[in-house]
Amino acid sequence: MVSVKSMAEHFALGIDIGGSHITCAPVTLGTQEIAVASLKRAYVDSKGSVSDIIEAWSNVILDCNAAMQDSPVRIGIAMPGPFDYEQGISYIRHQDKYDSLYGLNIKQLLADRIGISNERIYFSNDAACYLQGEMVAGAGKGYRHVLGLTLGTGFGSAIAHPGELRDACYWCAGFRGRQAEDYFSTRWFVWRFEELTGRKPANVKAMVDSVEDWEVVQQVFVEFGRNLAGFLAPLIREEGFELVVIGGNISNAFGLFRVELERQLRAHGLGTIICQSQLNENASLLGAANLEAVSRG
After folding, report:
1. pTM for this one?
2. How far apart are the first and last CA of the chain?
3. Which of 25, 139, 186, 189 is the least buried, fewest Cβ under 10 Å from its Cβ?
4. CB–CB of 61/110 below 8 Å?
């Protein structure tokens, strides 16, 4: 009979932390399967105090881990930046989220609250975890040169080449006189829709659901696809990407900008495959759960 302890050694907790949520699930490392029945997700007040945030995160982790009946051998966390991923220190500030955690050792705070060694906790960039998951078990499987993008409240990016997978940090790249994130995140959609209609939507989903403004919605997404192609074309040439995988909440509207994006890339002489994430949020959970193995090389 296999003991509970040895069973737990085949698992890791994959955790995805966003601007307003935490998602956690056990992952079977041998098969790269997520225990969906044990997946936990909760809202987090990212503007709360240190104790409130750490408590909210820890409660979800402990609740999820209870399904494994033992302390996990490893915990992997996909975390937005800026962040010292090796030391576990947050440098997020002035992003309307997690300001109270600035300069603190999140790895140690979580270890103390959960009751495990901080050596069991691994952090990596959220976009890199997302791409790692897609490369292991999703859209990127079988490809060698891949760009992963996450489109949402921020603009995440990661690059995969043989023997290399890293955060690309394209969010702060220059584009049309501003940072790229100003064009490829929720705030651009909100700004552009308000500019055209005089009404400010709560988010991209609310904009898409605005049936009476459907022609404007279509126009906004065509412009977005055109802008994204203009940004990606020189990067694809430079890095030789075979595939671009697009995830994040905005990717739910992929069909509204895909045609224009591909058309514009063809106009640049590029036939790179553009596809939507196959795993969605599960990609980040898989990538995070594999962080210890990745750290060992």
Report:
1. 0.86
2. 31
3. 186
4. yes
Q: What single-letter amino acid sits at 257?
A: F
Distance CA 25, CA 289 (A): 9
- Asked whether residue 104 carries a pLDDT value surpassing 70, the answer given is yes
**37: amino acid identity, one letter:** A
**Cα–Cα distance, 277 to 244 (Å, whole number):** 9
Distance (Å, whole) CA 261 – CA 251 = 13
Residue at token pair 């995805």:
16
Structure tokens, 16: 């995805």
List, as own/partner pairs, every contact residues 40-43 make where C-beta atoms lie below 8 angstroms and the sequence separation is at least 24, other chains included. 40/64
- Kindly list the structural domains of the chain, giving each domain's residue range(s) and its CATH number in brackets, ordered by start: 4-128+284-296 (3.30.420.40), 139-277 (3.30.420.40)
Cα 204 to Cα 222: distance, rounded to the nearest angstrom: 14
DSSP per position, 170-190: GGGSEETTEEGGGTSSHHHHH
Q: Could you tell me whether strands 75-79 and 40-43 are parallel, antiparallel, or unpaired per DSSP bridges? A: unpaired
- Asked whether 288 and 34 are in contact (CB, 8 A), the reply is no
Total H helices, total E strands in the chain: 10, 15
Name the residue among 201, 262, 195, 267 with its Cα closest to residue 228: 262
Beta bridge pairs of residue 125: 79
φ and ψ at residue 89, rounded to 5 degrees: -105, 130
